[in-house]
Each structure stands twice: as C-alpha cells, then as structure tokens.
Write a structure and sequence with these properties.
Length: 564
C-alpha cells in the first residue's frame, strides 16, 4: 500500500500526462485502481485522463466502473454515455442515461448529452426534445445550440436557418455550423451563397472531407464538368494527409469516373509507397475502369489479407472469368463477416454463373421478392406526393449513388417532421410486416432469412424523381439493409420502344462486372405498390421515355440493439 489518497493518485497521473508519458499514466492508473477499487470518483477521473490519451476503450471501462459504484450519479452516467457515443454505440449510450433521467432533467449537461446520443441513435424527435430542454435551462449552451440546429436541418424544420444563425452567434468559429449554414442555403435554393461558404471552408481547412464533398456537390449541381478539381489543390496544400486522395477517388468512382479515380490513388501511392491501402484502391478502380491487367498486376503483389481485399479481388476474378478463385475469396470473406451484404451479393452471381443450385436457395425461394400494394395508399400517398414534389424541386443528383440523372431528396426522408411523411412511414411499415409474414421460414445459414423474426426498422429512406430520356438507376445494392424496397409514387404513361422501360430488374450484375447475365426477375411498377426484395440482390431500373417517375426507397435493417 502506498498510502496515497485517490486525489494524490489522480494528480500523479495528470502530471505524467502533462509530461507526455502515456505508458506511465497507465501504470499509475492501474496502481490507483488496485489500491482504491471502490472509489467511484477515482474511476471517473481515470476515464477522463484516458480520454485525453485518446483511449476510448479503456475510458469506457473506467466510466462504467464509476457509474456502477455510484448508480445515481448524473455526471458519471453522462461521461459513460459520451464515451459510448464516441465509440458509435449510441443506443447503449441512451440506455446508460435512462436510469438517471429523473435527476438529469434539470441538468443542462445531461439534457444536451441526451440529445446528442438520441440523435446518434436515429431518434431525431427525441433529440430535439432533449436539446430544447437543455436550452431552456442554459440558453447559450453551444453544444445544445449546435445539435438542435443540426436536428432542425435533418428534420426539415422551417426555422433551420434561424437556428443555425443563432448557434453561430454563440460560436462563430464552429466550422460544422458554417457547413450547416451552407447546406441550409443550398436547400433554400441559394446555391451561390452555399458555394461561397463552402469555398471559404475548403480554403481554411483543405483536409476537411465534409467541406470538400459539399463543394463538389455544389459544383456538380452548377454543371461543372471538373467538379472535383479542388481536391487536387487540397492535396498540394496538405501533402501528408492520406484521406484527401481517398475521398477524391471515391467521389469520382461514384459517378463512374473509374479511370480517373485509379490515377488519383496511383498518384497517392507514389507519395505513400508503404501504405498498401492505396495499392488496393488502385486495383479496385483500375479493374472497374476495364484495365484488368493493371489490377491483376497489383493483386499479385498485394500483401494485405482482409475481407475487404478478398471481396474486391473476387470482383476482379469474376471479370477475369476465374469463378472458382472468386468463390474461394468470397468464402473467406463471409466466414469472417457472415452478415456482410456485399460478398453475399457477389456469391449469388458466382453461383448463377456456375449453375450452382444454391443460387435458388439464396434468392429464388417463394416470397423472397415481390410487388405488394401499399397499405392505405389512397389515403396517404396523394398528400405525400405533393410534398415530395416540393422537396425535389430543390434537390440535386447526389454524389456517390446509383442515380444517373434526376434528383434525390436530402437526408433521411422519414426523419422529417411533416405529418404526410409520418403517415406514409406507418403505411410502409404495415406493408413490410405483411411481407415478413409471407417470407420463407427462418434459416440460420441464410444471410437474409436468419434475420426474419428479429426486430426490424426502416433505416435509410429517400425519394428519387427521374425524368424520361435516359434517367435511371445503375445496378447496385444497399449494403446496410436486410430488405430493400422501392415504393412507386408516380409513373410515366409513355413506354417508348422498350416494353419494359422503367421496370425494376433484380439480379442483373453491375456494369463493371461486364457479364452477359440477365436479371433473375423483372418487376413491372404499379403506382401505390412496393417492390420488396433481399438487400443481397443487385437491382436497377431500365431507362424510360415520357414524363416523370417518382419513388420512395428505403432499407429495412435490424432494429438498434438487435443481435446480428
């Protein structure tokens, strides 16, 4: 026993931290915990010190110990919740705050933190409520003002710009708030004003991905062919930042500029020769561009072994016609990530190419995909369509999506506040539940049916409006979903020369695989109906002529907290 008090141990750890002796800090904290294992405040201090070291994982251990020893402490629960949220575990963070809610309601820190974790857990209405409570207690609390402004944008609230400006009046140096202002101006139709802010953000912080991406989106909306050239300037200014060329390549590849993306990462690879991430990315983008020999050369020398490498190389092997090698790589990836959608989608294609009967098991069982009428369509759809047209009138073609032409609504559609969308959401949920009941039974080996009876919720949600003359979706998958869907709100009357113009194709491989393999099914759209299908199925729409076509698309995912 050293005879040191908890406060003395804490001061020793802080001194070591200030001296930059990270390992010594850990030794001191371990000794302190051994000598005073039941001192909640000491565990809390240890958590704060570990956060300063950047060790969120061990900070969680210490904060959890503090909260367990003092279960009524708002401070300790808040610190644990903040740490869990920082680790991306927002639903757990909400659960940690619930037991001290009664005490926390009068505490601005608790209410602001509760708003942040509710927002992270995709509960925007609850987030707004808790931020408002925080601001009622402390009107100029910067974090609550920031969070509330962000929620207002995400929910499409009419006073979003005013909330952003109010938050900026308290903290004018918050770059994310300036980004929020630019995004709000864009929504309001002031693209020039939005671009002015985005350009200033990129000039001040050339390495900031969010600013770079917004400027690219705005330049694309303004019709600039070289809409991502500012990434090159950012690379020249911040020569040691590896994230800039990765983001630049992703932006280009998302709009099918694969050869240009390959050249960007090749340039980065010369700058960072020891980083195999750039070699893998060059192989991915060069293969997608059609330069198979270049990709083959890189894969043959690539040392990294990971599920990402295996599934990407499998894609390359499919292009090469090496289906056995592709199958072996996909088996390795799925063994480590059995719930990952992308390798299962490729595995289904390989099975089809090989004539393997497991392709039938994966996607052809009765009830796996079908067109269903929307519950209460006559009641909920007309007002929703009217609202969606207004949203589309000021929405862009997005970056990095499957859309080729047309527009897509911003953010998560069902996070918005309009009652028309709430009614549509409930009708869709009822239809999805009917689909679930008529699916094949639970199968623990199946990537979709293993989740058949688990709690589901609607995660990603958006609307797409296309115009005739070539607008379409290229073949793609939604890797975050279990079930994917398109609700047909409005369809063109004219069909043109193609009798299946505008139809949904399920199972046709994406163009970069260069396969002569048709869809496993086609679905003729009907207004007021949903196409529901496994997220492991590539899908796209055929180009069409005539007037507008509007859909609401969404993913059905495991509910937050549900076991995978």
């Amino acid at each position: 026993m050293s005879g040191l008090s908890p406060a003395q141990w804490r001061d020793r750890a802080l001194a070591a931290l200030q001296a930059g002796r990270g390992e010594k800090v850990r030794q001191i904290l371990a000794a302190a915990a051994s000598e005073h294992p039941l001192d909640a405040a000491l565990h809390n201090s240890a958590g704060n010190i570990l956060l300063k070291l950047g060790d969120k994982t061990q900070a969680e251990v210490q904060f959890r110990a503090a909260a367990s020893l003092a279960p009524t402490s708002v401070e300790f629960a808040v610190n644990l919740a903040i740490t869990l949220s920082g680790l991306g575990r927002h639903t757990e963070a909400v659960a940690v705050l619930l037991p001290v809610e009664a005490q926390g309601r009068a505490n601005a820190v608790y209410c602001s933190t509760r708003g942040t974790v509710e927002r992270g857990a995709h509960n925007p209405a609850a987030a707004a409520l808790w931020y408002d409570r925080a601001l009622a207690i402390e009107p100029k609390r910067a974090k609550a003002l920031h969070g509330r402004a962000r929620v207002a944008i995400e929910r499409g609230e009419s006073d979003a710009l005013a909330r952003v400006d109010h938050a900026l009046s308290v903290n004018r140096n918050d770059a994310d708030l300036w980004l929020a202002r630019a995004q709000t101006l864009d929504v309001m139709g002031d693209i020039a004003g939005a671009r002015n802010i985005a350009e200033q953000l990129v000039e001040a912080m050339p390495q900031w991905d969010e600013g770079l991406k917004l400027l690219a989106q705005l330049r694309l909306a303004m019709g600039e062919a070289n809409f991502a050239s500012h990434y090159e300037r950012a690379m020249e200014r911040v020569t040691d930042d590896r994230s800039i060329p990765i983001a630049w390549a992703n932006i280009l590849a998302g709009l099918d500029f694969h050869a240009e993306a390959a050249d960007v990462v090749a340039q980065a690879r010369r700058r960072f020769p020891d980083d195999e991430q750039f070699a893998l990315l060059e192989a991915i983008h060069s293969g997608a561009s059609g330069d198979d020999d270049r990709a083959d050369h890189i894969y043959a020398r690539l040392a990294v072994q990971s599920p990402d490498r295996w599934q990407q190389e499998a894609r390359h092997r499919i292009r090469r016609g090496e289906y056995d090698r592709a199958a072996s790589l996909l088996d390795k990836a799925i063994a480590i990530r059995p719930d990952a959608i992308f390798p299962w989608a490729l595995r289904g294609i390989v099975w089809r190419l090989a004539g393997d009967q497991r392709a039938e098991w994966l996607h052809h069982q009765p009830g796996m995909h079908r067109l269903r009428p929307l519950h209460d369509a006559e009641k909920v759809l007309p007002p929703a369509i009217e609202l969606l047209h207004r949203l589309h009138d000021n929405s862009p073609m997005p970056l990095g999506q499957s859309l080729r032409g047309g527009s897509q609504t911003r953010g998560l559609l069902f996070d918005r506040v309009e009652p028309e969308l709430a009614a549509l959401h409930d009708a869709i949920l009822a239809t999805v539940e009917q689909h679930r009941r008529e699916m094949p039974p639970v199968d623990p080996d199946h990537p979709i049916l293993r989740h058949r009876d688990k709690p589901w919720h609607i995660s990603g949600s958006w609307s797409v409006r296309l115009s005739g003359g070539g607008d379409h979706h290229t073949a793609h998958i939604h890797p975050q979903g279990v079930i994917s869907s398109a609700l047909y709100c409005l369809l063109p009357r004219a069909r043109g020369e193609d009798p299946q113009a505008g139809w949904l194709e399920l199972g046709r491989p994406p163009p970069d695989l260069r396969l002569d393999l048709g869809p496993i099914a086609t679905i003729e759209p009907e207004e007021g109906h949903l196409a529901l299908f496994p997220s492991t199925l590539y899908h796209g729409t055929r180009p069409f002529a005539g007037d507008r076509r509007m859909t609401v698309a969404f993913d059905v995912s495991l509910a937050h907290g549900a076991a995978p």
